[in-house]
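User: Predict the structure for this protein chain, please.
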Amino acid sequence: MTDTVITTAKHIDAEISAFTLNRDALRQHAHNIAMLIFYRAAPKAVGEDCTGNGDCTRALKLAQAMPKSWADQMVTWFETFTPIRVKVKAGTVGFDARYKALKGAENEAARLEWWKLEEANTTPFYELSEEKGKDDYKIMSFEDLMKLIPALANRIEKMIEQDKVCDEDEASAVAMAEQLKVLKFQRIEKPSNENEEPKEQGAGAGKPNQKAA
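Assistant: Here is the predicted structure, written as structure tokens:
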């Protein structure tokens, strides 16, 4: 005798809630794994939990085990906060060529700048960029908007590496990426009186109205 299939709306809603909880727990678990990979690969000077092993191979294994939309987000996460570069379709993983070129004690500080431990730890891969195909949109805070700037810089650099920028504009693209990395903004507080009339701006502001001749 087979079990009766329960198709009430209440039961279906409960199943949806269970799916949501399991999905969110799974995404958080994936982020935790990504941080383990971070700690294993990053130099010891980056943080007390970093081993300096230099092994980033598990980043590819993790991305390959994820749904494509999640994998795309995870690849972006590694590109944003580490020098690890994952190419899921090609089945390759390694460090950015510019990072590998920083050899010698004199370049140690420059190498460490590639590893953004605090940002990586507090920004799960699924919050860094919207999952493709989602219909709902996250309301962006000032902090969220600030995270888009280094992500854009990394995206431009990736396009340069993949020869997706025309030769005559490559120098300009490099300059754009470098300038994006150093951009600083301050949050502008919301006016306390929202009903206040906006002040006129421009060269003619504050001048009395002139009567027509």
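Residues 131-137, 196-213 have pLDDT under 50 and may be disordered.
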